[in-house]
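Many introductory courses stop at the sequence. We go one step further.
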Amino acid sequence: MTTVENTGKIKKIAVLTSGGDAPGMNAVIRAVVRTAKHFGLEVLGVKRGYDGLLSGDVFDMHEKSVSDIIHKGGTILLTARSSEMRTEEGQKKAANICNILGIDALVVIGGDGSITGGLKLARLGVNVIGIPATIDLDLDCSEYTIGFDTAVNTAMEAINKIRDTSFSHERCSVVEVMGRNSGEIALWCAMTCGAEEVLIPENPIEHDIIIAEIFKNRAKGKRHHLVIVAEGSGHTEEFAKKIEQVTGIETRASILGYLQRGGSPTAMDRRLGSLMGYKAVESLINGEKNRIVVIKNNDYKTIDIEEGLNQESTYSNKTYDIIKILSV
């Protein structure tokens, strides 16, 4: 049995999920609720993210509230994007509601926008701890965000099926994956699916250069081609049409879309979601304020929320270069 002294004098916490859903969010919710109850805390669940907080849509949560959810995709708390929370008036209203409800700390599960909303509340006196959960893997302060592994595996399985028919028909397949302005999903899918080329926002490449490479690969005897496109690079369908027009190779565009956000989370997302949810509550009990739970060097810890959101990583072409070496 873990022995932790409640030096932060925390009595009541609230938990919400905000922004885009990600597989593994339910594992985080489960860990937050059960860890909090283990240490004798009251827990409020907030429905529909900041929209629910602003409307007071909260309910008491107990151990049984999170039974049989660790394997489920999506979020049992539901989620939404709140335009009101982007305003100063909305932020003050949300902070006031936290005070009225007697919330000692708010656990925010979501991506950069959601945790930025938490930072706004922290500046107004609410103790906030963020847990990165987004399939995009675009929070630079953490090496991992909940949902990424499941999204990559979902996309990989779909691309494998597309590749089978591309081979059978000697086609070129251009597949768009999610990730907003991050190319991480695209890079991982390109490497694990054996793509010849990948287009990502961090490393823009002229379409004509890719088309020239398709010609070269066809001359080498390659009969089918796979190009992965991150959604932040865009114009997938137009690019596919251009490839077919210029090369004469039958080309199909596939946009995987929200398929990647759903489904049962992988073991990694369940495990890391559980550990990060536990760490969030532990840090609050230990008296920490306004933190983000992050993963660094395969370990999880907390850092200052403002410091974390201000961190920026430097893009390296190394993964892309390896993909190119292995592609043909």
